[in-house]
Amino acid sequence: MRRKNVKNFHDSLHSFFCVLYTVLMPNTNETKIPMITPLVEMDGDEMTRILWKDIKEELLEPYIDLKTEYYDLGLPHREETKDQVTIDAANAAKKYGVAVKCATITPNAQRVDEYNLSEMWKSPNGTIRAILDGTVFRKPILVKGIEPVVSGWKEPITIARHAFGDVYKNTELRIPGKGRAKLVFEGEDGAVVEKEIVQFDGPGVLQGQFNKDDSISSFARSCFQYALDTHQDLWFSTKDTISKVYDHRFKDIFQEIYDNEYRRQFEAEGLDYFYTLIDDAVARVIRSRGGYVWAVKNYDGDVMSDMISTAFGSLAMMTSVLVSPEGNYEYEAAHGTVTRHYYQYLQGKETSTNPVATIFAWTGALAKRGELDEIVQLVQFAHDLEKAVLTTIENGQVTGDLIPLWKGENPAHKLTSREFLSAVRQTLDEIRA
Ligand code: NAP
Ligand code: MG
User: Fold this and answer.
1) Which ligand 1 atom lies nearest to the CA of residue 48?
2) Nearest atom of ligand 1 to the alpha carbon of 335
3) What is the CA radius of gyration of the chain?
4) pLDDT tens digits, 257-295
């Protein structure tokens, strides 16, 4: 992977001693796991901000000499900095390569009033995605006791959604009556291309869509890279038999990039790249046992990711990672700031909000950081913590959202978020003992 940050002499010396320390000092109760490069930490809003702090205090800081570069993306601080903090955080993710993000409020008119905002700031995720130019991968967390609705699914299915263009950047018209609709392209060189769309014989509707080779290519590279990183096959599907130019361009770009840049690595790893029509893909997905990455166009991803997440169980058990074509990673939970629970919390009530996806955002980021910096203990810790979370749930200690989904052998007990975190800590200590 291309890493861009060139370390100066001081950094190299520091890294050398940190690695030496890792090797010479096995982690005991007295020594914490060291880090070399900081994680970019993006704090957020409401209930997830509360969980964020608790997760750090209960599950991370007692074990790791946690090194982060902290950016407060909570709405009050975005307002104070005129949203500059979001841009700075995204640039830091580009500089260091690995970030972990808490859920954040995307302001609407009601939030503008609630937080007394000077502007309706844009979605932080949109801003970060535009700067990193990435693809979002959503992966369900599988655990015994919460069975997928589709009984054949045994491994997670990761959806990779192209988050640019198509119907999300379309231009639409209501057609009042009879007339001719055309597609027209005027080249900078003066060349004009024209094609008739339809001869309207009465009122109707009309839509223009576009996408760009650059964006499709970054999407393809992110998908191939992610599949290699996670050692899974990659499926890609469009409707190229019907959309012979538009969707076909997606298919061709994926194939070219695969043949020229990734085929050798895929074959060496025993992995497959597989293209099929979207309707065929849907049927195969249902019949499959899971365990692959499914790349889809923007609209297909919007629709299919909600289907996949619901079919696997709960939104609170879904992680999300943004991967840029240069190999920068930003991990987060797929859910939002859980506003309803936050209002209960503000009334002094203990809530039973599920912190699992947020914990997995941290473990994903720590494992990736550990891998890049070659800190074996950090990677191991991330795996231990994930195992501790899953074991705790398998033992029937769960947050309220999982109770209606529970199919485990023994009855499940509803814990508050804090009780759940301490139960996980206890399991973690047993695993690491
Ligand atoms: P949400 O925060 O995902 O919550 C919707 C509902 O799903 C909750 O009320 C809760 O159901 C359930 N839920 C979600 N996560 C849960 C968890 N961890 N534990 C237990 N239950 C959970 O979506 P929202 O209420 O539509 O949005 C709230 C705010 O989040 C908005 O301001 C939005 O802009 C923001 N948002 C941010 C991101 C992001 O940063 N990536 C993504 C989506 C939304 P019950 O109420 O039935 O318990
Ligand atoms: Mg959707």
Assistant:
1) 18
2) 3
3) 24
4) 999 999 999 999 999 999 999 999 999 999 999 999 999
Supply φ then ψ for residue 371, to 5 degrees: -65, -45
* pLDDT, tens only, 136-171: 899 999 999 998 889 899 999 999 999 888 887 889
Nearest CA to ligand 1 atom 8: 338
CA distance 65 to 366: 12
Atom in ligand 1 nearest the alpha carbon of residue 356: 18
Pick the ligand that lies closest to the CA of residue 136. 1
How far is it, in rounded angstroms, from Cα 48 to Cα 75? 13
Q: Residue 33 has what DSSP assignment?
A: B
What gap in Å lies between CA 194 and CA 172, rounded to an integer?
18
Compute the distance between CA of residue 196 and CA of residue 98 in angstroms, rounded to an integer: 48
pTM of the full structure: 0.85
* Cα–Cα distance, 209 to 383 (Å, whole number): 43
- Closest residue by CA, ligand 1 atom 37: 336
Residue 401 CA: which ligand is closest? 1
Please choose, from the candidates 143, 103, 137, the residue with its C-alpha nearest in 3D space to the C-alpha of residue 123. 103
